[in-house]
Amino acid sequence: MEQTITENKSSHNVLYIFNTLSNRLNSHRNPSKALSMSKYMRNQFEFFGLQAPERRALYKDLWAQVKKLDSSEIRALVNLTWQSPEREFQLFTTEILEKEMLNIFENEAEFSATSALNTLEFIKSFLAGNKSWWDTVDTLAVKVVGPLVKLCQDELLPVMDKWNIDDNFWLCRTSIIYQNSFKARTDEARLFKYCLTQVHSKEFFIQKAIGWALREYYKINPMSVTAFVKENKDRLSSLSIREALKHDK
């Protein structure tokens, strides 16, 4: 469905970006691919039917305009794109949040702990909302939440502790995988603790997250991960073990 918003709902800059994006995506709609893409996502979302390279090429030139937005305009734009029906809009949203993470809140002279907390709370609405699914959650967890926690560990690690036991399994998944790009800076004790906190979960996306997070850390410290899996082999799900030791030879 093609969308157009009116001038009184947002600034001119946001209007231009949103309407240009909407028109371009709609004009390149591929119904047959849209059906298969929707089926792959369990028919939860509508699609334009655009694969990532084609989709990104359509709005590559818009990033220069996004860079000109102030913090309130960024929030207005991502709220618009997130609420739009086709999944490509939500994927665009995650890309904005990744690229503009440090500009979402600019109330202080420079990025601060308060900014980080406000930003994380804002990101949470896209992690635990009605359009949350692995394709958006994983990007936000690894490329937005992870870097934020790195910047302000004292303030944000307690939030990760809370998310690890939250009833929303997407927040739990985020707490487990947010360190996936940390490599040698991974907090091993926290990673193992978070995995064990959710070790009895029957949720596929939690079991998969545990295995994925352990597999990423295995690339840095295979002996430690192997020992952890061996020690907890009777507690970890077979899926988590299989994913964790996928590169074990």
Automatic annotation (TrEMBL):
Transmembrane segments: none annotated. Pfam families: DNA_alkylation. This is DNA alkylation repair protein. Gene3D superfamilies: ARM repeat domains, Hypothetical protein (EF3068). InterPro entries: ARM-type_fold, DNA_alkylation.
